[in-house]
Amino acid sequence: MDIPVESLVFRKCVMATMSTDLRSFARSMMSPMGIDHFSYCRNYPGGRVYCMTTDPDFSELYVNEKLYNEVSMASIEFYQSGYYLWNISFPGSRVGNAILEKLGIEYGLTIIRNNYPNYCEFYHYGKKGNNPFLNHFFINKLNIFEGIACLFNESFSRQIAYANANRIIFPESSFDSVYTYQSEEVDLSM
Is the domain 3-169 a CATH 3.10.129.10 member? Predict the structure, then answer.
């Protein structure tokens, strides 16, 4: 049953109801590395989305403040698979400011896997701290974050199937400048 975002009863949606399970997973897998935030989102054509997150309060803000108008609702063919560092992708944006103010996170990594024309997956990892070397932390551990993404898909297959049946319909914007264009090249050959 797809739910238009305007009709969303937030506390009953997947973003809110799955957070306890996801926090347990994140605590066991990511706390030793100091990861403070994890979310998994899947976008489909037509603005249909589901998101599972450790921080449903931020998702509620994302919905209520209509931050989706600025990010993550582009038509899926525009997304580029790859790695996106938050302090390069988000600075000065309303979404970046909201992440910093609500979650206290300036540095993070998003892995995008575009399976066009079917769907596009987003794995978001955030780490608190005000240290530009945190980008090196993320870049040097890409294989670990890829592994966590695979383990998440295996461990949460039942919850993913449930979330898939309870998507939210967001208005689709024409272009997402955050994940379709990154102003600075990231050299991963270090």
Answer: no
